[in-house]
Structure formats: structure tokens, C-alpha cells
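Quick one:
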Amino acid sequence: MVADATKWGITMIDYTDPTDKMSSTAMPVTSLLNSKEKHLLKKALFTYAKQSYNSEGKLPKDQHDIIYHIAEKLHLR
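Output:
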């Protein structure tokens, strides 16, 4: 597991575990999120990061990496 996100109700998948079998189902051609949803999610992710910096003085590396990968996968950057 990359990070413990259970307190936020998020289940993480360890993609580095070679015993996990990924589905071979093709990804849908249509976008998962529309532009308004992407904008709101981007705002939420980066607001969370800012609050972490303001309250703790840093964003833990594992959380930074998760946010980065979410942004990359959903084309939020």
C-alpha cells in the first residue's frame, strides 16, 4: 500500500504488487470527467495540498506523489 487513505474513505491499490492481476478490459473512449468536474477535483486536490503546507509546513512525499499521479492520469496538469 502506498499510503493509508482509509481515514478519507479511499481504498488504495498497490500497483507494484506482481501478484495483483489487472483487468484486461479496454478503457472507455469517452472522458471519465467533464471539464467542470476536472476543475473542481483539481481545486480540491491543490486546496488540500495548500492546507497541509499551511498547517504542517509540508506535504508528505507519499501524498505529493499520489496527488501528482491523480493529476497526470486525469489530465489535470
